[in-house]
Design a protein that fits this description.
By secondary structure, this protein is mainly alpha-helical. The chain has helices spanning about 1-5, 10-30, 35-40, 45-65, 75-95, 115-135, 145-160, 165-180, 185-210, 215-230, 235-250, 275-305, 310-335, 355-380, and strands at about 95-100, 100-110, 115. About 70% of the residues lie in helices and about 5% in strands.
Length: about 375
């Protein structure tokens, strides 16, 4: 481990957390893909193991490359990234790959891979907000400036994500609000921001009920909420199987590869991987995963508070909060505290480019940490 740490910079605790979560991911995914392998690869689980392991290795490489880049470069890049993300989101809505009436993916020509444009847009928007908020720390906000520089980009990105992915839209909107609060935006503008969001939701509800063909996903959202409220509904198959997996896991779990729910639990390798982890590794395994995310949040906030520049502080905090918030939403769904959302567990759920975008976000946080440690070291000298 010491040899590895000699070649990396930034917060070593976060690097350790990433390695542990990656190990958890490989072990859990390999055990959970049993039914998927029989359905698509004639029972060849090694195919998915190798594919997932390679994706994680590429993600770690991306994290390493990004963390070596001076984080201040991401300030200007955020403007370009945000400008690019808008047409990408529009293209996704118009011609993206669709699943369950939700167009979320764009194909990468010549690779056979797809990626969710919302993953790219999330990083772009949070980096852009960190830039604008840091530049306006000493200024007095006025409504026009706030609306054009902050409200409009958030409204555009969230509005374009909403038709296909309500949970990602809600997560991004909430993260934007928290960043604005930490960035000392005046209360009256924060209330205006919340009001804008509520009006947007009200508009969607009205359109959903009066013109369901315009928002075909609205019926799915309503059905999920109704099923969540009605615990006896036969439509709660996913949640019921997750609860069985958790209940039978006990304190120490059934052991790696000994799951009995993996053939019954929908998506045990992605959306419900936390329930699967508890089944095989028990309460101890589930607690360890939660503990790792809490430690990551603590270290992320520590990096943000120690950074000498406002942009670094807001960037590290926004990305860290977003990842941990997403993780706890995934775990809340697996434990039936939230309706089904489809949010993966960062760095753990099986995925493709979503893991890479998570790795990029981690790399940016580590980049802030690297420069912060350098500044503190120089002060001591």
């Amino acid at each position: 481990m010491d040899i590895l740490y000699r070649h990396i910079k930034g917060d070593k605790v976060i690097w350790t957390i990433v390695l542990f979560l990656s190990l958890f991911s490989v072990l859990a995914v390999y055990s959970a893909i049993n039914s998927l392998a029989y359905k698509y690869q004639h029972g060849n689980q090694i195919y998915y193991l190798v594919k997932h392991s390679l994706i994680i290795i590429v993600g770690l490489f991306l994290m390493y490359v990004i963390h070596r880049i001076k984080y201040s470069y991401f300030s200007r890049l955020s403007q370009i990234a945000l400008f690019v993300s808008i047409p990408l989101l529009l293209l996704t809505l118009a011609r993206g790959a669709s699943l369950n009436e939700a167009a979320r993916w764009l194909s990468i020509p010549g690779t056979g891979l797809t990626f969710q444009t919302s993953d790219f847009a999330k990083i772009a928007l949070m980096s852009y907000l960190a830039r604008i908020l840091s530049k306006n720390q000493e200024k007095n906000y006025d409504l026009k400036e706030t609306s054009l520089k902050i409200f409009l980009p958030v409204a555009l990105v969230c509005g374009l994500i909403l038709p296909a992915n309500f949970s990602t839209c809600a997560l991004l909107f909430t993260t934007s609000f928290i960043m604005m609060f930490v960035g000392r935006v005046k209360t009256k503008f924060l209330l205006t921001f919340v009001g804008m969001g509520l009006l947007g939701v009200l508009l969607i509800v009205l359109i959903g009920f009066t013109a369901p063909k315009v928002f075909p996903r609205f019926a799915t959202w309503v059905k999920r909420i109704e099923n969540f409220k009605d615990k006896d509904s036969k439509e709660n198959f996913q949640a019921d199987q997750a609860k069985i997996a958790i209940a039978t896991g006990g304190i120490t779990g059934k052991g790696p590869g000994k799951s009995t729910q993996r053939n019954m639990l929908p998506h045990p390798y992605s959306d419900f991987i936390f329930a699967f982890i508890i089944e095989e590794y028990g309460f101890i395994g589930g607690f360890l995963v939660v503990f790792l995310y809490l430690i990551f949040l603590f270290r992320g906030v520590r990096i943000a508070t120690r950074s000498k520049k406002n942009f670094g502080s807001l960037l590290a905090f926004g990305l860290c909060f977003s990842l941990v918030f997403q993780a706890f939403i995934n775990m809340a769904v697996a434990t039936n505290l939230f309706p089904v959302t489809g949010q993966p567990l960062p760095l753990v759920s099986m995925g493709g480019t979503s893991i890479w975008f998570t790795s990029i976000a981690m790399g940016i946080i580590l980049s802030v940490s690297t420069e912060t440690e350098s500044d503190i070291a120089n002060e001591k000298v």
